[in-house]
Design goal:
The chain is 38% helix and 13% strand. The chain is of the alpha/beta class and 444 residues long. The chain has two domains: 180 residues, Aspartate Aminotransferase, domain 1 (Alpha-Beta Complex), CATH 3.90.1150; 208 residues, Aspartate Aminotransferase, domain 2 (3-Layer(aba) Sandwich), CATH 3.40.640.10. Helix 4 runs parallel beside helix 12 and helix 14 crosses helix 15.
Length: 444
């Protein structure tokens, strides 16, 4: 079926506007996830999406869009992906939460560990659950309090140990904030300086293997070596990279075995499931087969819901039998080629561009001084929405076809024509309403 976007002149967001007003009366911020909030999108945008199929979504006003957010990178196969939905349905018919463990918990753990190569795993529901559990394990294992985080990576947890380090630290005691220290990605000297400044005090370093910038000069391995030299735990956050860079995570791409690692998002294709995995000697502290002090690791009522585990098993099966990751790279490369051609055609080099791995692309927007600009980001989002594309990032899925990519590239070329005019005339002449805003800011 050919996708024909609703013309901008025919788009209506009447029902979205009604729901937005109501939602802010009922829900702080109007949404349950900050990255989905109204401040992240221009005024002329769909406020509520009602359903989706593959990489297409429909809003409550009936407008259809090609989507590139894909559930904040959680939906890698596609919305309402039938084999995944069927696996959840079949399992739900058997019950989803008993008083004792179900066999599927062992089956899913065994399958997951065979792909990752770790010794033990514990499942939960959110990325924050497992990154915080990793921090707790590291502190218990080392007897130390300080946590080192990569300052260049945007998000690790909703919990105090991370949020206290951001500009939205209101409500978090200073004593907690002071327990988190920072280093910089691809800057080994900053890691060395951290260990020198806090000798014998750092429990762990946590970082993503890669975001928009790849590791250079064997950075991951060198950081791990420094951690082990100083008695700290090396943790890789694979919430995004897992099942997107490689079914076994970025650690497989870069051939490194972390002490602990965390997975989530794509392993459930939108269903809520996450995983903490790692070395037995550390993970077992949260278990029963040791004589050390007990660690209250992860004990969640819904951490091993059977339908989410069934979904994870189905996702892993699909990844092993089909070329999912290869498709992500291929479509990301196709999108990059088209976008770069449009940038060149409008002479926008340095003002607009794409960065990151083809499987997980993002774009940057700059003003006439080539400074990063939220106003120009809002303008680009606005113009893409007019042309039937929701594009907070350039994240592709297994459901993005060549036709979807080509339609998107056409829309990008048209949107960048407006972008070029805004650079020359002023963005205020083209952007309707206020700019978008970063999530982490001190005041609204």
């Amino acid at each position: 079926m050919t996708f024909t976007p609703t013309k901008a002149s025919q788009q209506s967001f009447t029902e979205s506007k009604r729901l937005q007003k109501k939602s802010h009366d009922l829900i702080p911020g109007g949404a349950h996830t900050y990255a989905k909030g109204d401040d992240q999108y221009p005024i002329m945008a769909p406020g509520f999406l009602s359903h989706g199929k593959g990489c297409h979504v429909w809003d409550v006003d009936g407008n259809e869009f090609i989507e590139y957010g894909m559930g904040l990178r959680a939906v890698t196969l596609g919305h309402a992906y039938e084999p995944v939905v069927e696996s959840a349905y079949r399992q739900m018919l058997q019950g989803i939460n008993f008083t004792r463990p179900a066999p599927i918990e062992v089956e899913c753990a065994e399958q997951f560990l065979s792909l990752i190569g770790a010794d033990m795993v514990k499942f939960a529901k959110n990325g924050s659950d497992v990154t915080t559990a990793a921090i707790k394990l590291a502190r218990a294992y080392t007897g130390r309090d300080l946590v080192g985080i990569c300052a260049d990576h945007p998000f690790f947890s909703t919990d105090d140990w991370f949020i206290g380090s951001t500009s939205m630290s209101a409500g978090i005691p200073t004593a907690i904030q002071n327990l988190t220290v920072k280093f910089h990605y691809n800057n080994l000297a900053s890691v060395q300086a951290l260990f020198a400044q806090y000798p014998g005090q750092i429990a762990c370093l946590i970082m993503e293997a890669e975001t928009a910038v790849p590791p250079i000069d064997d950075f991951l391995h060198q950081v791990q070596q420094l951690c082990h030299r100083h008695g700290a735990i090396f943790i890789l956050d694979e919430i995004i990279t897992g099942f997107r860079w490689h079914v076994g995570g970025a650690q497989k791409v870069y051939q490194i075995t972390p002490d602990l690692c965390t997975f989530g998002k794509a392993m459930g294709n939108g269903f809520s499931i996450s995983a903490l995995a790692g070395k037995r000697e550390i993970m077992e502290l949260g278990g029963l087969q040791h004589d050390k002090e007990r660690v209250f690791l992860l004990s969640t009522t819904f951490g091993a819901e059977h339908h989410s585990l069934a979904v994870a098993l189905e996702v892993m099966r699909i990844y092993q039998q089909e070329s999912v990751v290869e498709h992500l790279y291929c479509q990301g490369e196709r999108l990059t080629r088209g976008l770069n051609q449009a940038v060149s055609a409008h002479q926008l080099e340095g003002y607009f561009g794409v960065i990151g791995k083809p499987c997980n692309l993002v774009y940057f927007t700059c003003d006439p001084n080539k400074e990063r600009s939220q106003a120009f980001r809002a303008l680009f989002l606005q113009e893409m929405i007019k042309r039937g594309v929701i594009m907070p990032s350039l994240v592709v899925s297994y459901s993005h076809t060549d036709a979807d990519i080509d339609q998107t590239v056409e829309a990008i070329a048209e949107a960048l024509a407006v972008y070029r005019k805004a650079l020359e005339d002023g963005v205020e002449h083209y952007l309707i309403g206020r700019p978008v805003k970063p999530v982490f800011r001190k005041f609204n």
